[in-house]
Amino acid sequence: MAKNTILLVDDDENICKVIKLYLEKEGLEIRIANDGKQGLDMFSSYSPDLVLLDIMMPGMDGIEVIKRIRKESNVPVIMLTAKGDTFDKVLALELGADDYIVKPFEPKELIARIKAVIRRSENASAEEESIKYEDLEISLATYTVIYCGEKLELPPKELELLYFLASHPNKVFTREQLLQKVWEFDFYGDSRTVDVHIKRLREKLGGEHPWQIKTVWGVGYKFEVK
């Protein structure tokens, strides 16, 4: 079986060496780019299974890189940032990042998050079921969403969240439950991640339908079917 390929884009060579060491111990193949432009070139050349992308880099930063990646691919992206600033985190998620992790971080935590994303991807390949509602069809087998007869491009995490909610119509989930079920790990209590993804889904699924993603104030969210 071929190794999963990870593309790491970070200008800090010391961090790159450490991450490379740990990921190779886990049987993952890693490619390293030390700036945004090189990262995009390597992304096109190697078609990685997952991208680890630093936000703060000279020249082309990680925000610009993920913008360009999302124009052509829904490959999972985990953002790496030394900032604890909420704006950077929310912006990264709104641009289509699947996750972010703040430096300094424990290598075991990073590996757990990478494996969770890879596991979801592999499980989705074997998934045969699709969910159908009026004006909406979601398939994990092909990672596609058909909305009002047209294919709707969604980043993997948005699609997985939509699929999970739609799989449990009218059931309310707390933000913490959604983090555990969809992200498959504890997200250190940062429930804003769920809020950002819900906001993006609502923007893309506007209009009147017999279903909607509804906020249950003080609790969480549900996929309401009338």
Question: Low-confidence segments, ≥5 residues, pLDDT <50?
Answer: none
Q: Determine the mean pLDDT.
A: 86
Structural class: alpha/beta
How many H/I helices? Answer: 8
Compute the separation of the termini in Å. 46 Å
Rough outline = globular
- Radius of gyration (Å): 18 Å
- Compute the number of strand runs: 12
Organism: Guopingia tenuis
Protein name: Stage 0 sporulation protein A homolog
DNA-binding region: 128-225
Domain Response regulatory: 5-118
Features:
about 230 residues, alpha/beta, 5-stranded parallel sheet, 4-stranded antiparallel sheet
Entry summary:
With 226 residues, the protein is of the alpha/beta class. Helix content is 42%, strand content 23%.
Structure description:
The chain has 226 residues and is α/β, with parallel strands linked by helices. It is 42% helix and 23% strand. The protein contains eight helices and twelve strands. It has helices at 13-25, 36-46, 62-70, 86-94, 107-126, 156-167, 175-183, 192-204; strands at residues 5-9, 29-33, 50-54, 77-81, 99-102, 130-133, 136-139, 144-147, 150-152, 173-174, 211-216, 220-225. A five-stranded parallel beta sheet has the order 2-1-3-4-5, sandwiched between helices. Helix 2 (36-46) runs parallel beside helix 3. The model has no long low-confidence stretch (mean pLDDT 86).
